[in-house]
Amino acid sequence: MNEVQSKLLRMYEDIREVLDRNGIAYYAIFGTALGAVRHDGFIPWDDDMDLAVWIEDIPRINEALSKELDPEKYYYHVPRADDHPHVVLIEGDLEESIRDRTALFIDLFPLSGFPDGKFRRFATGAAIWGDNIAIYALDRI
Q1: Which CATH class is domain 3-129?
Q2: Contact 19, 75 (CB under 8 A)
Q3: pLDDT for 84
Q4: DSSP secondary structure of the chain
Q5: Considering the chain, what is the average pLDDT of its residues?
Q6: Are 41 and 35 in contact (CB under 8 A)?
Q7: Is the pTM of this model over 0.90?
Q8: Cα(1)–Cα(141) distance, rounded to whole angstroms?
Q9: CA-to-CA distance for 56 and 132, rounded, in angstroms?
Q10: Beta bridge partners of 107
Q11: What mean pLDDT is predicted for residues 100-108?
Q12: pLDDT-based confidence at 115, cuts 50/70/90?
């Protein structure tokens, strides 16, 4: 585990403590889940963590993380309509590290229910995963 991943793990432990204390469910997804299964930890080149939370828990998450995370250590981004929440580790100048894409962060992706019917569930899942894979791949080019 490298230094970045050690810091992410400490961030995750702080976030986990708050979510557990408030009875909020969360799940590892995307590269975080893949790393846990395939590498027994992090993907060697991964530099963030991705967690899924239920969309109906977002108001509780906003309140809990805003109040309970150390504001000297973390910036909690409360989502807008077109965004998702994430926690950023404060190291040095926060605005500069976000602008320069050097900030360490953990994304919280809202999950909502799937439609009824085997085909509709499959189509919805394929659309969601396909979009996320495409966006992730394009972001890495």
Answers
A1: alpha beta
A2: no
A3: 73
A4: --HHHHHHHHHHHHHHHHHHHTT---EE-HHHHHHHHHSSS--TT---EEEEEEGGGHHHHHHHHHHHS-TTTEEEE---TT---EEEE--S-HHHHHHTT---EEEEEEE-PPPSSHHHHHHHHHHHHHHHHHHHHHHT-
A5: 79
A6: yes
A7: no
A8: 25
A9: 21
A10: 50, 86
A11: 82
A12: low
Distance (Å, whole) CA 38 – CA 25? 23
Question: How confident is the model at residue 112, as a pLDDT?
Answer: 78
- Domain residue ranges in the chain: 3-129
Of the two residues 65 and 88, the one the predictor is more confident about is: 65
What are phi and psi for residue 44, nearest 5 degrees?
A: -50, -35
- Spatial contact of 132 and 110, defined as CB atoms under 8 Å apart: no
Closest to 56 measured CA to CA, from 78, 80, 86, 24? 24
Position 135 scores a pLDDT of 43
81 contacts 65 by C-beta, under 8 angstroms: no
